[in-house]
Amino acid sequence: MEFSIEITPKADVATLASLPPSVREVSITLLPGADEREAIAQAQRVRAAGFEPIPHIPARSIRNPAHLESFLTQLRTTAHIRKALVIGGSRDSIGDYTSTLQLLETGLFEGLQVGIAGHPEEMPYLSEAECDEVLRQKIQFAEKTGLELFIVTQWSMDPAAVLRWCDRIQPFNPLPIYLGIPGPASLTSLMKFAAICGVRASWTGLRQQSGKLGQLLTVQTPDFLIDALQHQVDHFHVYTFGGVNRTAEWLNQVAADPSRFVMSA
Fold this sequence. Notes:
Blueprint: E1 2-7, E2 25-28, H1 36-48, E3 52-58, H2 65-79, E4 83-87, H3 100-104, E5 113-118, H4 128-145, E6 148-155, H5 159-169, E7 177-182, H6 187-197, H7 200-208, H8 210-217, H9 223-229, E8 235-239, H10 244-256
Parallel strand pairs: 1-2, 1-8, 2-3, 3-4, 4-5, 5-6, 6-7, 7-8
Helix pairs in contact: 1-2, 6-7
């Protein structure tokens, strides 16, 4: 079982030192309107700390091919990136691109492993079928071009939704999956981020089962998700809503006692 984590450009990289040695990949968000120079600097700091930076490249925040080339060149030369996560980003495009596939088609990601988004809980403006079709198109592009892809999913607290998604894409998906889960966080924080991120099933579940989930979160672990999903996915991508230190503490507990998880049938 493998883990990676996600942080913001403003997170204190010094806190990464508390992660277990097995956790080396750190993705770096770039939200709409944010300064990409902060993401580049954070990627440099993550690399200098001995971790593998995976910067986000949001398609609709890229103005034109020259902007994309400059952004990637800086990440390659200063942070020595080997991987990047290409996402759609904001609904409103500021330039030439409206989709991740358009970025991939530039050829500028050659030589990198590229993460693409997976959506077990759909998106606010795309249906389940549309999300699956977009994923299929990216996979077909990679098969034609040789581009090395992997999937990083939105975070979810609904194991049933994740399992349905895995079953749906299984016939056409050969790619490794980094399954998004929330790290230890308060129920209030999770509900806030569920609403922001548009994970409908998780938000509904948090509202309807707040007593049950609140009880689980008093011990600050998302173990129940891994219990339910580990037979389907072996890499979990942890969103650090409750902070890197709290996530690191939990990951160290997992590393010390991996038998804590109950293998589901």
